[in-house]
């Protein structure tokens, strides 16, 4: 059990840590930064981790494995919550979070010595600890990840951990929080899931060894995959004010009842392909939909994509395709080819959703939006790809009619042969 927990932590530390930002001064990748946040509240004394081992002992063993395995180039830090104050004063207990080891190139002996001193003590101020963990990581470029390990939900209420996660997600620092729950309590699962979903992280319950092994394997596979970080973009209310998008992946946020507009230039002979996703990162009402429309410069709708759902979902997606046909060479009788820029079309993308939420749910920041934009030339299409429809002209019609006629004749002959053979039997 302990080894599996350690393996999962190693995978979480390694996953998503490929440096993707470039230091301006030296042109070298910034080191990935990871902050392990450990719950050391009184309930961590419970001995239910297999073999009578306490939760804190299992976590300490797992931390030692992580410290031994962390790559040299990774800056690793450790923060605790509930580790120092055993009293009953709410105000003091809900600020009981401190940096045990700074986020830096790790001294393995020093870090393991610090972990060995931990004894379960106090409260569970998760929201307060998350803010501290974010500050520990600093503001520079590069991968920033928090791994939160706890056996219970926040015991303070203020600041609310889920709201803190939304706050951090909206800060523009690209922080990811993965959460590990040491119990299967529904309230713990709900809170840790909310924290993870708000920041693009993962939640895992870590009491079942088989499930842990499966999760570790999954995370290890993902660790080698290249990750494309979306470009932040701020959509507009009107197409005339909308930002220009090229080929790429973009992220935005959209309030309830809001429309977001973006513009994409498309040349004649190209096809625009767009996928849009809206993430329900908080409690929402049961019926919802997403609508993506493509408009021309006069506001006329060219095409649309829709998606709808009911119940509980994490992401709702839709997409659309719009081809711009080549101009007719014979259209201009004067022989003037005209301005080549006239072949370019501006397509306005308008994204809206019908998510709604109870009055008690926070409205800001808006729901996370992701747009994937691609423009494909007709010359690049494979022969079996349909750029402007399934087929055109009389040829495909005659071909299909001929196939149908031949199939009908062969079917009739076969039926007659079978009937004759049965009659002679």
Automatic annotation (TrEMBL):
Q: Sorted alphabetically, which keywords does the UniProt record give?
A: Membrane, Signal, Transmembrane, Transmembrane helix
| Segments crossing the lipid bilayer | 393-414
**Database matches in Gene3D superfamilies:** von Willebrand factor, type A domain
Origin, by domain of life? Answer: Bacteria
Leader peptide range in chain numbering = 1-23
List each copy of the VWFA domain by range. 33-219
For this protein, the record's Pfam families field holds: VWA_2
Q: Region entry Disordered: which residue ranges?
A: 301-342
**What segments bear the compositional bias annotation Acidic residues?**
325-340
PANTHER family, alphabetized? CALCIUM-ACTIVATED CHLORIDE CHANNEL REGULATOR (PTHR10579), ZINC FINGER (C3HC4-TYPE RING FINGER) FAMILY PROTEIN (PTHR10579:SF43)
Q: What's the protein name? A: Ca-activated chloride channel family protein
Organism in which the protein naturally occurs: Streptomyces zhaozhouensis
